[in-house]
Amino acid sequence: MTPALDRVASGLFALALIGAPLLGLAACDGEKLDPEDGLEREDLGSFTTDTGGGADIPFEPAAGAVSALVHCGPYGYDTLATTETITGPGGTALYDMEDPTGTAMRVGIMSDLLPVLLPVSPDLDLAAGAHSMRMYFDAEAAVTVSCSAVYRTQPVEANPAVDIRLVFVGVNDVAPGLNAAEAETTLASVLEEVNTMWSGGNLEIGSVTYEDFDGDVATYTVVDGDEELGALLRTVPSTNDRSITFFFVQEITDDAGATILGLAGGPPGTAAVGATSKSGVVVTAASFASDPGEVARIMAHEGGHFLGLFHSTEKDGSESDPLSDTPECSNDADGNGTLASSECEGTGAENLMWWNTKEGATMSADQGWVVARSAAVR
Amino acid sequence: MRTLPTLLLVAAVGFAHAPLAHADDALRAQVVDLLSAYEEPATAAQLRALGAGVGAELLAVAQDASLSHTRRAGAVFALGYFPTEAHRGWLSALATTEGGDAILRRKAVYALAAGWGDAALPDLGRALAAPDTQLRAATARALGRLGSAAAQDTLRARLATEADPMVRSTLSSALGVTK
Predict the structure, then answer these.
(1) For residue A71, which of A112, A130, A114, A105 has the smallest C-alpha distance?
(2) What are A277-322's pLDDT values in tens digits?
(3) Which of A216, A301, A356 is most worth mutating to test chain B (most B CB atoms within 10 A of its CB)?
(4) Host H or E run for residue A165
(5) DSSP assigned state of A374
(6) d(CA B69, CA B103)
(7) ∠ at Cα B89 (B45, B29), nearest 5°?
(8) Which residues on A lie below 8 Å from B77 (Cβ)?
(9) Residue A268, preceding bond cis, omega within 30 degrees?
């Protein structure tokens, strides 16, 4: 057990369960970084879509920057946006949606706010100099967005760690039958398992804070759809803390009412940028008592998304990440359109970013390379 | 100081049965695999593509207390894709019996609405009057998605008496939802 988790085990879930006040920082096995050390922030301005439904966003990482997080929004939940192209210094093509796997770059398609992270693979590192990103909005009317960038200038640490903030939202009854001490021990084991899964990428949990949600618990106990998810993530303080906020809720549901195990802002989330609809991670904690390992896998996987990781292979095999050390599975042996874990044993299903909660998953070295460059990681 | 609600201690044993025998371990593994997706719940098409016997396997998973809550919840929800009378009877009992597992009950109301439509209104009406506010809210959403005139009438009737602000808000939203 790491020193940080030793401290966690001193009273975490028990206190949340019985109504502890905000406890502030748990201890950490190192000095806490000044949030702004090693980060440069730039307000890129406001942009309005042209007649083609796009907008060109210029940004310019300085020499020494190891990552750039560009985010534009808000544009609401009735509009989806993605990135058409990204060009680097000298007009180098870094991404083209017409050939999305042609380079080692990936982007998302998102409502309300679009974050884009460079790099997302060691095979396409960030270069200093003038870049341009063309966003595309699926909207009939013109859209105006505000864009900002966070450049990480802090060198990558030999032993990167990410601080986490746990916020409990109406989850008392996900642990029926467990007393406070048992719940506390279970949560410590969950965090230890997250560390184990992240260790393949040399990432570990730094400090841990925990608190009861002080907002509208009745509404967010069950997070129902995109708008509620975005609204909950916007409660992450705008102090731009360098951490990942994990909201533990009873469950997330899709629009049809089906349970979703976890959702991250992104990928990537707006690391080190609070108060956006992509500012954290929401975890369905329904299995806390029946299968705490599942809660750990949700945290580790969705945390990976927040830090810039994509699925190693999608469920239908249509997409894969741009990393060379995460196997890309295409073995749909039974031809039913789904890549089952049993069909991809040894060829992808053992990765943390596999599409489902298969046990024993770990982060790869390349995935560790990506997350170590996140603005949220110290 | 809060204590664990007695209701939820009861829920720990409600509707949790011993694992049922199942004939096809491979099919069980495939069903559970689909129910274990992080972000994308199993669709009707994905489950049906697994072949015959999926509905029965879903019921077995839903009743298997040795599995995680989320997998069981996914199975309960997916029973709405396989609307047999046996499934309806089980879902009806789950949705309307006080003391049952809170999350599984919510999935049952969604499954009933999706699988049986207006024929499930008597069960949905009872769930809409249950003490659990989250169950009432889930039922309101399910009725909103159902969208029939009878479902709208049920929502309006509940809105006239509902006191909880969160549920009232959900009822109002559901009444604005078109199918």
Answers:
(1) A114
(2) 999 999 999 999 999 999 999 999 999 999 999 999 999 998 999 9
(3) A356
(4) strand A161-169
(5) S
(6) 8
(7) 40
(8) 257-259
(9) yes
Count of pairs with CB atoms under 8 A, one residue in A, one in B: 145
CA-angle at A304, arms to A302 and A310, nearest 5°: 95
* Of the listed ranges A24-38, A59-73, B101-115, the one predicted with least confidence: A24-38
* Nearest chain A CA: its distance from B74 CA (Å): 6
What pLDDT shows up at residue B177?
A: 53
What is the C-alpha separation between B124 and B111, in angstroms, rounded?
Answer: 11
Q: Is A177 on the interface with B (CB under 8 A)?
A: yes
Residue B24 has a pLDDT of: 82
Residue B25: both structure tokens together: 């371990």
User: Phi, psi (5° rounding) for residue A45?
Assistant: 105, -175
Q: How far is B42 from chain A (nearest CA, A)?
A: 9
pLDDT digits (tens, 9 = 90+) for B3-48: 333 333 333 333 444 444 455 899 999 999 999 999 999 999 999 9
What sign does the dihedral B100-B102-B103-B109 (CA atoms) show?
A: positive
- What pLDDT is attached to residue A271? 97
Q: B residues 88-147 near A, CB within 8 Å?
A: 102-103, 106-107, 109-110, 114, 133-134, 137-138, 141-142, 145
Distance from CA of A351 to the nearest CA of B (A): 13
Interchain contact B4–A (C-beta under 8 A): yes
Whether B62 shows a pLDDT value over 80: the answer reads yes
Residue A154 confidence (pLDDT) above 90: yes
A173 closest CB neighbour out of B5, B67, B145: B5
Closest approach of A302 to chain B, Cα-based (Å): 8
pLDDT digits (tens, 9 = 90+) for A16-54: 443 333 233 333 333 444 556 899 999 999 999 999 999
- DSSP helix/strand/coil, A292: helix
**8-state DSSP, A51:** T
Say if A24 is an interface residue toward chain B (CB within 8 Å): no
DSSP annotation of A163: E
Report the residue count for chain B: 179
- As given in the structure block, the two tokens for residue A364 are 């790869």
Instruction: Return the structure tokens found at A18.
Output: 């019985």
Q: Does A287 touch chain B (CB under 8 A)?
A: yes
- What number is the ipTM of this complex? 0.90
